[in-house]
Each structure stands twice: as C-alpha cells, then as structure tokens.
Description:
This protein is of the alpha/beta class. The chain has twelve helices and 14 strands.
Amino acid sequence: MKKALLCATALVAAAFAQSAYAQETVKVGIIAPFSGGFAGSFGEPFRQGIETYVAMHGDPSDNLKIEFIYRDLPATDPGRARNLAQELVARDGVQYLGGFVFTPNAIAAAAVSEGAKIPTVIFNASASAVVSQSQYFVRTSNTLPQVTVPTAKEALEKGFKTVITAVSDYGPGIDAETFFKKTFEEGGGEVLETIRMPLSTTDFGPYLQNISLKSPDALFVFLPYGPPTFSFVNGYRDNGLDQAGISFIGLSETQESDLQTLGDAAVGLETGYFYSAAHESPENEAFLAKFDELFPDSDPNPATISAFDGTHVLYEMIRATEGQADPDAAIDAVKGLAWESPRGPVSIDPETRDIVQNVYMRVVERDEDGKLINKEVKTYEAQPDYGAQQ
Length: 390
C-alpha cells in the first residue's frame, strides 16, 4: 500500500513537472493581401518569409512557440485594417501584430497598437511617417527616403542633369518624389516635372508620351510592385523612351516575384533597393537553400525578406519577455538590435525604431541559366531613414 502511494505521488509530481515545462503559445496576427492583385507580390511572400524563418530556427525557446493568425486585406482600406487589428486583439487574443502592405492601412491600425499596447512589426508600409504613429511600431522593410536618397546620389554620379519624376500618388510615392527632387537638385541637377499618378492607373501611355516629348536625361519612377509595374515597364519600352536615350531610374519595380514575368522589357533597367536574391553572402545562401526547399516554384522578393527579418524581431521580443505580455519590455528589447540578414547587415535604430540597412544599386541581367536577376553593382552602406532626419 505504501509502495503504491509512493508511485502515485511520483506520477503526480511528474505530471506537474511536465505541465510546468509545457510550451506556451504566443499568438501573432498578420494582416496582408492574401487575395487579389497584390497577393503574389506581398501576401504570399510574407507567409513564405515567416515559414522559412520558422523552419530555419524552430521555436523561440523550448517552452515557447508562436501561432501565426493570418487575416486578408487585399487593398487599401483603412477602416477594414483597423477593424481587423481590433478583432485579432479582442477576439483572437494576439499579443503581437505584423504585416501591413499599404501605408494608410498601417496608420489606421496604429490606434489599436497604441491603445492596446500591441507591439507591431511593419513588413512593408514604407512612408517615413508610419513608425512615428505608435510607440509600439517597429519596421523591418524600408522607407522611401532611405532608398531614394542614395538612388538620387547615384543619378548625379552618372552625370544626369535633367530628370522627370513619376510616382504613385500616395504617401510613399510622395516621399520618393520629395526626397529624389531635394537630393538631385541640391547636387546640381534639375527636375523638369513631377508627375503623380493615381494608384488605380492601368494605362500609363499618356504620362510616358508626355515624358518622351520633354526628353529628360532620365526618368525616376516609384510604383508599388505588383500589377502597376508590368504596364509601366512595358510602356517605357513600347513608347520608345529607352530608344530616345531616357534612362530608367527605379526602386522596387524589378523585384523578383515580378521579374521573370517582365521578361526582356526589364533587361538593363537600373534600380536602387535593399534586397536582391542575387546578393552574395553566406546568410543569403542559407536562406535561399531553405526557401527553395520549402517553395521550389517561387522566387523570394524584398517582401519575403522583410517578413523573414520581421519574424526575427518577433522572436527577439518574445524571448526577451519570456512569452509574457510586456509590451514596453518587448519594444525596448529590439531598440538597437543588430544582426546579419540575408540582405546584409541590419539594425533597428533605437530612436526611430526603423531599420538601418545597405541600399544596393542593381542592373537587371540574365544569369548563366538565362534567369533574370538584379545584379548588385554598388553598395551604399548603413542607410538611415532620411525622412526622420528632417
């Protein structure tokens, strides 16, 4: 009898011990376009970046794991963005938020992040002002001033004297226009005209014909990658701007998930951006190996890397707080955080909570297998968000 009691006591103790070390689940809500025209350029790359990081790194710790809850937001819809964020927090019990492609959606969700104290990792939304909307925002993508300023400097170094800018008419596009014009003109260049095109534009012919008539040395362009890119790049060729000697200066227009579809129209285009799948480093090699294993029919793009690094930031916050809801400690843990990303060395600015990273000048060419790549030809190291310096 005494022996049976001892055995029972041991079993109960073991059960309590097992319970003490059971994994706690931290929920993270991801809001992005998983349907519609931007799903292939952003939504699926976000999911693939997250899953690649988890496959490479496992759980945050032996007793902590993450559950990602995905919510579809196909287009710019601030009201819906705010509602989805509220639902994820109040109904699904998420401790963190992530994702957000379009700036108006991210800004709309800022009230939820701030009011409920939900640390939120921005995977895209690249207007400079976004992160300042909530003290619980941190961004792992880029800002338009960050990539535009070195691109404008490169245009000056190439000897371009006159440029026309053509950008999508929303926050990031206006940032790109503003900082290209400022940097280019301060360096002695002249911006002949600034053109803002509605996000809904599908026919860019009239804009391109006007640009051709004014014959600048170069055309600086920013469009959110995805459907608008195809018609603009093809229109640039079809309207003979390249034949007229008007050089193309872009940012994200040749990102990898669009690149093969663009085909020969993309060859020779020059852009400045923060990630190319052709980047040469051990970290990118390891990332690509795992990505290709998981998603053999896909190409990683900058959105993939933003989500991959965003997941790294989420892991660091979760580890620092041991899975508990401590939003201030979570954000403090990643201020000044530095690591080696597949894109190169990066860090989180402790004051702005924005990413500091290299910006690469790239030229589209075909590799030895005939695949189109963004070949890096020059690096501007450790670029900050120039928008935050105003």
